[in-house]
Design a protein that fits this description.
By secondary structure, this protein is of the alpha+beta class. Helices cover about 35% and strands about 20% of the residues. Bound molecules: flavin-adenine dinucleotide and FE2/S2 (inorganic) cluster (2 copies).
Amino acid sequence: MTGYSHKIRFVLDGKILEVDFNDGRYSPALTVLNYLRSLPNHRGVKEGCGVGDCGACTVVLGELAGDDSISYKAVNSCLLYLPMLQGKQLITVENVAGEHELHPVQQAMLEENASQCGYCTPGIVMSMFALYKNHHQPSLKAASDALTGNLCRCTGYQPILDAAMKACTNNGIDHFSASEADTVQLLKQIRSDDPPGIEGVTSYFRPSSLEAALDLKTRFQNAIFIDGATDIAFQLAGQPEYLIDLSGISDLKTFSKDEQYLYFGAGLTIEEVRAHTEDHLPAISKILEVFGSLQIRNRATLGGNICSASPISDVLPVLFSSEATVELLSKKGKRELAVEKFIKSYRETRINPDEILTGVRIPVRGENTISWSSKVSNRQDLDIATVNAGFRFIMGQDELVSQAILAFGGLAATTKRAIKTENFLVNKKLDEKTIRQASEILYHEFEPISDVRSDSASRRILARNLLLKCYIEYLNPNF
Ligand SMILES: Cc1cc2nc3c(=O)[nH]c(=O)nc-3n(C[C@H](O)[C@H](O)[C@H](O)COP(=O)(O)OP(=O)(O)OC[C@H]3O[C@@H](n4cnc5c(N)ncnc54)[C@H](O)[C@@H]3O)c2cc1C
Ligand code: FES
Ligand code: FES
């Protein structure tokens, strides 16, 4: 198709590599994991789970950051489609050592006895390598966070963490820094390539503008939009017919703030949203710290999460309680809808087939606002929520609540507000008596399902206890 290319180019092993999808060897629905495993010299990458849960397949993507440097991010190659490599540097475990010596992270793994069977080790080395490039003397929290997405069943995590702390002390300097200027030049050579547009059993397009994406959707009406593909890649295991990848559209990656609103482009990754909200909206950044793993957060997007409409989305409860709105674009124009209205039913939204979710607007609130969030899961990290919550109280005169929003995930088929409890809280003081009465109303307000994660009765208790936790942790820390 005009303006698109059936070839992709990316940097691997210090040179530009081209894959031509017209030669029939590879499908655009092939994952980078399976692509690498098909090459003779990149089989260090391993498949454990195939669905983003173990980290054995971790690779690092280098991308131009401005005009003369590269940003390095660890990602799960089992959730990455091959054409998504266009314009990037792919770094695998085979690339990490220098010509004559191990990389500092490999040396530290060796010295700290941080590997036994070794199956998980290549993935761990890649996550640690990304940590090395991004953090000088990381805190234990940052090191643990970087390794959360990597399971290891033999070594025990302490030696691995010790290796990370030992290695990351050199301002990220290594043989990649020495060759960075050359790699930047290679990436610049492929920056202006036509975007991938590959037609076949699976057709894949990565338009560079919203207009082009809407044109493609008009032409291929049953095409599926993807961005990070962390939800879609394993749901569509096999050969989806048409994929329109929105990740090449810079208009979807903007962030802005004025006196009234914070605006987040739908294509911002969860990790980018976490960073943007750290100062402005701690209730959001806090829950995003326990969203998946860093590899997932580096790919998963805000828009993808909202459009998935999952009942255990970690993003939706805080967006409900912040009274956020979504912005939708089609050829007919723009429209805006409250996130709460946008979610229709179990995994269903009110998006029209010809629309793209372009961004999310969150109203800036005054100092009389209390926002809070929490997630309960069977495991703290890399687990989906059993119950999660986003609360917001607006305080009026005489310290009485003028508005309360209590939104929960995991209690119903969609994220849901506890309207009865909210109504009870209006015009009350947020003291222990009120909170205890409210938590009893809350206990009876939902009829949650039982599933493998938890039974119905436990979910009710969790909901009630989350309100008590908010009181103890935030509203009355001296409790
Ligand atoms: C291992 C693992 C752990 C996870 N952990 C968590 C977790 O802790 N908490 C949590 O909430 N979720 C979690 N998820 C779910 C997933 O990562 C998120 O829902 C993610 O935010 C989806 O974003 P994406 O860009 O990958 O979406 P994609 O997979 O690309 O798309 C998801 C859906 O959104 C649609 N879509 C995407 N962008 C747009 C757009 N701009 N306009 C219109 N439609 C669009 C797609 O058509 C598709 O239907 C996890 C997933 C995995 C695999
Ligand atoms: S193979 Fe387990 S995360 Fe990719
Ligand atoms: S060393 Fe065996 S699973 Fe990690």
